[in-house]
Amino acid sequence: MRKVIFSIVLLILSFIYFPASAQKSVYYDPPQETYRQAMESFRQQNYGAAAPLFERYMAENDNPHDAFYENAAYYYTVSNVALGNKNALQQVEHFVTDYPESAWLPKVYFELGKLYFKSRKYTETLEAFSKTSPEKLTREQQPEYYYKKGYSELSLNEFDEAAASFSQILDSKSSYGPAANFYYGHIQYQKGNYDEALMSFKTIENNKKFNKYVPYYILHIYFERGNYQQVIAEGSSYLQKADRKIKGEVNRLIANAYYELGDYENALSYFEDYERMGAKNLGSDEHYRIGYTKFRNKQYNAAITNFQKASETQSDNTQNAWYNLGFCYLYTHQKKFAQNAFLNAYREETYPEITADALYNYVKLTIELGGDMYNDPVTIVKEYIEKNNGLEKISNAYELLGQLYLASNNYEAALASLEQSGQMNPELQAIYQEIAFTSAVSEFNKGNYEQAMTNFDKATKFSADPEVKLNALFWKAEGLYRNKDYEEALKLYKAFISTPGSSGSEFYAAALYNLAYTYFNQKNYWQAITYFKKFLQTNSTERELVSDATLRLADSYFILKKFDEASALYDRVIQNNAKDADYALYQRAFCYGAKGNFNSKISSLTTLSQRYKKSYLYDDALYEIASTYVIQNDPRHAIIYFDKLVKEKPQSNLAKKSLLKLGFIYYNNNQNEKAISTLKQVVDKYPASTEAREALSTLQSIYMDKGAIDEYFAYANKLDFVQVSTGEQDSLVFTTGENQYINGNCREAVPKLENYLQQFPQGGFVLKTFYYLSDCYEKMGDEEKALKYNLEIIGFPDNPYTAGALLKAARIEYDREEFDPAKKHYQHLADIAEDKGMLVEALDGSMRCSYYTADYRNAIAYAQLLIESGTADDNQRVYARYISAKSYQSMGNTDKATEAFEQVEQGSADEMGAEAKYELCLSAFRKGQTDQSEALIYELSENYSDYPYWVAKGFILLADIYVQRGNTFQAEQTLQSIIDNFEGDDLRQVAQEKLNQLKSQN
């Protein structure tokens, strides 16, 4: 191109400046010869030869003002430009300076502009071109001028000026025409002038230089015009020859064309090719289109990523992205994520129909999942009702609202909301009853009986659901019974069983059982018998209740001295080897004894002692066997069993009685030496006890019989608790205080009893005085002094008051958090407890104190004893397993801790259960069982929503699981939910730190 332009220029100049007559003389003048040779070389485009010849000519001529010199300077400059010499620009600038009036200046400025253009100095290019005009250039130079001017303007973002320049040569046949059309089309495309752009692009679509790129623009124009079929047809053909760099974009255009036509099946393959070719930095709308195409092709998992990206940026499709993301999660069984996505779609409120439907789906999932940890679904549903009243889906909104209340466990708020709604139709009344009943049962199980009673009353307020009303009646009676309000409990139990349909209730048998027990506790044994019989006639499958009812029925007959009936019932329990069969054997023995059948009595008690050596009645059985042999005048066998009790159960309260009776037997059988030895054991082991005084009295008789009363006085005077000479005074002072105590006048009794201790610190009634004082101070609220006297009792060898003193002292110490002494006393009590209730409390206290003093092995041991005791209730057994779990955890035995936490979680619906569930989640996570951990976290959220602390910890753990899986989107969403909704600063801070860390890594 440049060679042609320069040839034409030289040809024109030769006609203008060099006529034929003048040229003849050039050939003979040596300088002119040089000039001729230079021009010849220039015409032949041999610029390398021409430039030095022109330079030599100027040196030979040495007349800058000569016309030929000026011409030579011009051609010399043009040659340097054509050669691309480094000094070409300098030459042009010199020419402009040297010849400011030269006719060659327009062309020189043109050459100067070209040089700047070549150096990409577009501002300077335009400045040079501004000093010439196309009219002063040859026709061949004009296309180059307009092209380079337009290109420079385009490069400087002067689009209108560039378009005007390119428009001058759109029809040009020069080599610049196609490029001008390309850039002109590009500018018009950018400005949205698609007709203009298309005309230019169509002109050059077959041009070899541009045919790889122009179709791309044409496809875009077709797409913008909505000519989707043309995009598909021409785009598919264009893909075969398109440059690899834009193939991805062509795939995107074709995919979007299919998308606009609703042909998602064909759109999918092109979108997939587009993604495979490394699509980067996609906008939210593009992500939405790709996600929706995958969604329509049921590729839900694949669509999730695109919808997530689309939802991150605010746009017209943000709500649609959340909405469809919800369905993707739903169809891939990720309901928790779906719930959150639908809620986010609802909150966008861009499209009313989607807003309503998203909220409806959120409500459905919230009910199914049991609530929403970080949002108030009740408020949201009310909003739904307000915003969408009149829609078809609103018809069951109030039913959904009621179910949501139940699922959320927010019973009090639910009841208040329904009470304020003013729409208590029969359907809502039934929902109200169910919520009130469920709430009452929950409070009842927590031991909050007052609140439970209030809500049971609410559950009976309406009759829309007769079954709920009936059940509420039963549970209210149950609460009154547990509060020992037996009269009111009786009324409600009777009202329950007399209500039509009650016999079909799941609580009918329990009502009969409790009604019978209420009469039993009121000592109305004939009525108790009636209802225990009715209970047993229900054929209840609750084996423990059946066994217990049979025993209480037998006890009622026993108390009424109906021994045959009682014995038969005791025998039924024994034959079934039921719980408390040891008690039945013991009671049956007394039935036999009451009828004078002493051999059967002994047989029954012997069976008890052989089968149930660990029974709390074991020592009682031995004592009664021995006592019965005494009645039968069989001292030999009596001695065997009294002696067996003393040796096997030395801590038993009956041990000293047995030892005393052994002394009596020896005395009555004239075995005085054995009697003396045995009775002295009573005195030595159990000083200051009633048995010790009886033993002393008998010893006095023996020594008197022997005529050795001095020996007795010598022995008695050595005893701290005996003052033989002042015994009468001792008794008189004690009795004055005891009488006040017996009459319930503690304030009068205390100073008299303390006076007794001052006068007779070693008196015979010291132990009993300590007991009276401890009891009085407890009733008077003086904990310190009550503890003091209980400790005094404990300081004596085990006696009738020891167990009670240990229990009271341990309770006071435990409440004061003095766990070491409390532990010591609870453990002592566990060895000598006189009944099941006391034993359970002793084991429970030993367990707790051991745990609080970091004595974890003993905590576990006592927890196991409590569980195996057979008398601990469900809550105590669960707590024992909780202590075991925490103890194993503290000892680093994670496997045992996990086993125990599993048992806790299975038996507890309160905060212990929530903590246990979290520990199971954490255990699974640490073992790498992330799927199991995730499932457990969802169970934690659903089942323990009343305990947000543990649920929040679970969700923080869930975020860690998502991070492990590479799902940072859900991890961030989860942590943000905790930050936005959890009220505790400690866990919010943990969540914020984790969120910051995630965002810093992205």
Give me the CATH architecture of the domain at 1-103, please.
Alpha Horseshoe
Helix content: over 70%
Percent strand equals under 5%
CATH topology of the domain at 1-103: Serine Threonine Protein Phosphatase 5, Tetratricopeptide repeat
Question: Which spans of ≥5 residues are poorly predicted at pLDDT below 50?
Answer: 1-28
Secondary structure tally: strands: 0
Radius of gyration: 53 Å
Q: Note the total helix count.
A: 55
- Counting helices, strands and paired strands, the structural category is mainly alpha
Biggest beta-sheet profile: none
Oligomer: single chain
* Average predicted local confidence, pLDDT: 87
What overall geometry do the principal axes of the alpha carbons give?
A: elongated
> What distance lies between the first and last C-alpha atoms, to the nearest angstrom?
53 Å
Name of the CATH first level of the domain at 1-103: Mainly Alpha
Describe the structure.
Mean pLDDT is 87; it is low at 1-28. The protein starts with a helix and ends with a helix. The protein is elongated, with a radius of gyration of 53 Å. Among the domains are: 1-103, Serine Threonine Protein Phosphatase 5, Tetratricopeptide repeat (Alpha Horseshoe), CATH 1.25.40; 920-1002, Serine Threonine Protein Phosphatase 5, Tetratricopeptide repeat. The relative contact order is 0.02. With 1002 residues, the protein is mostly helical.
Q: Nutshell version of this structure?
A:
This protein has 1002 residues and is mostly helical. Among the domains are: 1-103, Alpha Horseshoe (Serine Threonine Protein Phosphatase 5, Tetratricopeptide repeat), CATH 1.25.40; 920-1002, Serine Threonine Protein Phosphatase 5, Tetratricopeptide repeat.
